[in-house]
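Changelog-linked ticket: 2-deoxy-2-amino glucitol-6-phosphate example.
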Amino acid sequence: MCGIVGYVGPKNAVPVLLDGLTRLEYRGYDSAGVAVLNGHGLEHRKLAGRVQGLRDLLGRSPVRGSCGIGHTRWATHGAPNDCNAHPHLDCTGTLALVHNGIIENADLLRARLTQEGHRFATETDTETLAHLIEDSPGATLEERVIAALGHVEGTYGVAVIAETEPGKIVVARRGSPVLLGVGDGEFLVASDASAVLAHTRSVVYLNDGDVAVVTSEGYRVLDREAREQDRAVDDIEWDLEALALGGYPHFMLKEICEQAETVRSTLRGRLLFSEGTARLNGLNLTPAQCARIRRIVIVACGTSWHSGLVGRHVIEELAGIPVSVEYASEFRYRRLLRVPGTLTIAISQSGETADTLEALRVAKGAGSTVVGIVNVVGSTIARESDGGIYLHAGPEVGVASTKAFTSQLVALVLLGLYLGRQRGLAAEEGRRLVEQLAALPDLVARALELEGEVAQLAERYADATNALYLGRGVNFPVALEGALKLKEISYIHAEGYPAAEMKHGPIALIDANMPVVFLAPKDAVYAKVVSNMQEVRARGGRIIVVTSEGNGDLRHLVDHQLCVPAAAPLLSPLLTVIPLQLLAYHIAVRRGCDVDRPRNLAKSVTVE
Ligand code: AGP
């Protein structure tokens, strides 16, 4: 997601825009820019990097104007560099816009506009919209914006200014938030209230489909047919910090709770229902290359390594390709065998983890093709990979990775489906999985409804000193992930193990003080996991089980049962992990830990 801001009124817009962008940096921070109407025409400044860099640039090369727009970017299409930074201009350079969202049919629109003679300067989907408005009919800027948006598929929160109509900002929203700040003789537009709060507490929240025309005299809200709409003026009661957090107490909880939306975002535009496969444009693997793959090596660290373990099950099941999953930090010390047909997958939320980057380079050096599964667009791992799958999960601010994990799982299923359908997976099976993936966001939303129950459960275990997490098959990695979440933010020692492995040592740890968390969705290994639970019970262990909704037959065996929606076995980790994320979070909060900045940790480990 990105942050957009606009100002029109008696003041110089630039300081207002910069302060607003600083407030919006939590939404994205890989590049920034502003455009203003300076009384003679349109001027803009933009560059890669944080808003402070833009502030410095404007100090060296100032622009002034009483009407302007600004943007801080979270790249989705096109690397985060000076050129791809917003604002984007039309061919004449007299119209500028900033955009938050994804234009899904940008490639088609770009091809048509290019054919009509438009010249593109960037790799972004957003620039398409600038040329589309330039190309659209209408007596006013708002009419041209409405006409252009009629051709757009996807999501947008957009602000537009043009030399032809100085002192006017046109904004529109569909799927990405935009609000108006109503000041005294001055008006603002922004992605959220944190960018306007310093100037006014009165805001108008636009609805999807709304277009608003904002000048220093006031604003009008229109629908798609340019008919005036009434929108209430609300008063903001939050303080600034609370606004950036969207009302959540911590970024980690915000990111846990937005997983239905981030899973949807990772899936967006990638499900081909009739063909029963996935569209992965950035993968850069031809059908011939897919056919030649003999083995896959996954390299990653921490949570990303756990998603790789799930990915092994998924890819072996769907594509029939043998997969090994390596700690990136260990992989690089092995004698690397040059095995033709090796595909290496580097999984990394930040795209900057030094161990994973080094492993990628070693793999490339041994002749392997490398695919990156990354959240941060344009990050080093993304740029050094031969192709990849972006998560589109938005910035993950909390140090403990949550939404990136579930989006990595989605990306791995999409990859397994794509490869499988190239290598004999039946279309009918592919179509079934596509339907199951499409239903996933709603199942994730239902799993998130467990929060209240988990928060109560956390009260009982906040004083634990150790914990065991046990799972089998595709849920063994979830046991590892649940243990990592607990230990890294609550500082309770926790270990994840294959449930069957418990008999080979860890069972000695079981006593009434050792909470044991079992992953036991109703799947092919359910009965065996229940046997392990009985072994723990027989030794006085306290059991928390995550199982499928409607499964009442464990109540006699466990101390607490958390039920998640049933799902296809390969997709169940996306659901079983959610109560574990919530449990770790609520236990850490009760222990007074700094949940978003846990001790000794960093969000991206860029040292080896
Ligand atoms: C996960 O909660 C941890 N913060 C950590 O293990 C993290 O997953 C690991 O450092 C890898 O980071 P990456 O995904 O950005 O490469």
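Closing comment: Example verified and attached. The mean pLDDT is 94. The pocket of 2-deoxy-2-amino glucitol-6-phosphate is lined by residues 301-304, 348-350, 353, 356, 399-401, 488, 604-605 (CB under 6 Å).
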